[in-house]
Amino acid sequence: MNLKKTLAFLAVATASVSLAACGSSDNGGSSDGIVLANGAEPQNPLIPANTNENGGGRLTKLIYAGLVYYDNAGKTHMDVAESIEPNKDNTVFTVKLKDTKFSDGSPVTSKDFVDTWNYAVEKNFNNAYFFEMIKGYKEGAKSMEGLKVIDDSTFTIELAAPDADFVSRLGYDAYFPMHESAFADIDGYGENPIGNGPYMLDSWNHNVDATVVKNPEYTGERTAQNEGVKFTFYAQGDAAYADLLSGNLDVLDAIPDSAFSTYEQELAGRSTSDASARQVALTLNENLDHFSGEEGKLRRQAISHAINRDEITEVIYKGTATAAKDFTSPAIPNYNDSIKGSDVLNYDPAKAKELWDKADKISKFEGTLPISYNADGNNKAWVDAVANSIKNALGIESVGNPYPDFKSFRDEVKNRTAKGATRSSWSADYPATSAFIGPLYGTGAGNNDADYSNPELDSLIDKAASSSPEEAVKVNEQIQQILFEDLPAVPLWYPNTTIGWSESVNNVAVSWNGTIPFWEISKA
C-alpha cells in the first residue's frame, strides 16, 4: 500500500471512531462562572521552576505571576515588576517591584524572588538551566552571587555575560516567585501552592481534574473575567470533543485529528486554527542501541529523509500543521526556512535507504523501531503514519508504542526508560530563537531528552546570548547548521493550535505560543 493510500486509510479509520461511544462527563454546563476546560495530570507538584510540561504549565501560568508577562502577540509587558533597568552593557539589571500580594494576603518581596531562584538551582529543578546566565550559577549552589536584595521592593541581577534577551525570558515559569512557606515543605507546597497570579488552586484530584478560582488579591493586568477554570483530565481527545459538542465542556485546546474534517461545520464559528510557536519532533536518545556516534547520526538522517512530512500534514492534519524547515517555528522572529543543511528534512526515500545501509555497515540494525507517545494527546494517527513511512523507506519494522497518559509517558522519558524514538513537542517559553535551542539542545539542559552534548554548540549558544540582535541572528543560524548535521531530534512539523469552544463562553483566543489566555474568557 503506498503512503498516500495508507495515510488516507489511517485518517478515515481514526475519524470513524464513534464519538458517542467515547462517553462524556455528566457534570453538564457550568452555571457558576467556572469555565470547563480540558487538561492533563501534571507530571510533578506545582513548583514553577520544576514544571516544564503542558499539564503542570497550564496551572502554574494561572496560579503564579512573574516579573513580566507576554500578551497574545508575544510582546513583553511588566507584571509584578514596576521596572527592569539594565546597565549599559546588559550585565546588571535593577528590578523594582510593584506593591503586590500572594493569595494569602502577604506581600511579594524581592527576597521571595531571590530565595526562589536560588532554591531552584540548589535543588537542581528541571528549569534550573534558566538561571545559568546569572553570575555565580553552579549546579547545586545554595546561592548565586549575582542576586542581591536591596530592599523589599528592589533587587539586582548580575549576569556572567551580556544577554540581550534576558528581560524577555523573565515571563517564563522558572522565574515565578514562591511564597516563603514553600521552603519548609516543598512537596506539600507543590500540592497546595500559595501563588500570586490571577487564580489560586481550589482543588486537585489527581488523574481526574483540577480547579483554579479567581484570586481576589491579584491586581495585575491579567485580571480574570470568570470565576475560575476546571480542568478535566481526559484519557482521549475524542471524549473531550464529544463533551464539547454536547455542552459539557466549554473550551478544548486541541481538536482531535479524527475531527479535522468536520469540526468547522460542527462548531459553526466557535473554533480557530492559528499558527503558534510550537514544533513536533522525534527524539532518539544518544544512548539507544545503534543511535550513538557516527552510526547514530547516519540513522537519524535516514529517518528524517524517510518521513513524508508534506503528505502527513495534508492527509492527517488537513492543513492544520506545516512541514518543519528548521528547529524553531515561523511564529518566532527571524525565522528562516532555508538555513544551510535544512535539506536533511526533505523527503527522499532513496537517500534514506542509502544512509541506513551505510549505518548497517558499521553495525547491523535488527528488530523493530518503536515510536513512544502518550495516547491521551491525539498522537496515534500521525505516529502510525510516520512508522509506516519509515517502514516503507528503510525496510524495517516500526510501530507506535503508546503510553496511557502524558504523565506516565514523560516519566519514562525523564527516566530514560521509554522505548525507541519518542514523540517530542515544544512550545517556546519566551518569543525568541534561543527559547528553542538552549532548553532542548544545550548540554545538561532540563529538556534535553536526547542527552545531546556538543561543546561547539554550547559555545555558540553563549555567543548568541551576548551578541547584538543582528549578530545573534547569524550565530543562531550557525547553531542550526550544527543541529542539522547532528540531528539530536528530527523536526517533523509546526502544528497549529486548533481549538473549539461552546456557546456558553466568549472571548476565547490563542496566544503566540499556542496556549489559551483563560483569564480573558467570560461566561455567556
From TrEMBL:
What superkingdom does the record give? Answer: Bacteria
Q: Which keywords does this Swiss-Prot/TrEMBL entry list?
A: Signal
Signal peptide interval? 1-20
This chain's protein is named ABC transporter substrate-binding protein
Q: Which InterPro entries match?
A: Peptide/Ni-bd (IPR030678), SBP_5 (IPR039424), SBP_5_dom (IPR000914)
Q: Where in this chain does the record put each Solute-binding protein family domain?
A: 77-447
Naming one, the record's GO cellular component terms include:
periplasmic space
Concerning PANTHER family, the annotation shows: ABC TRANSPORTER SUBSTRATE-BINDING PROTEIN, PERIPLASMIC BINDING COMPONENT OF ABC TRANSPORTER
One Pfam family recorded for the sequence: SBP_bac_5
Taxonomy of the source species: Bacteria, Bacillati, Actinomycetota, Actinomycetes, Mycobacteriales
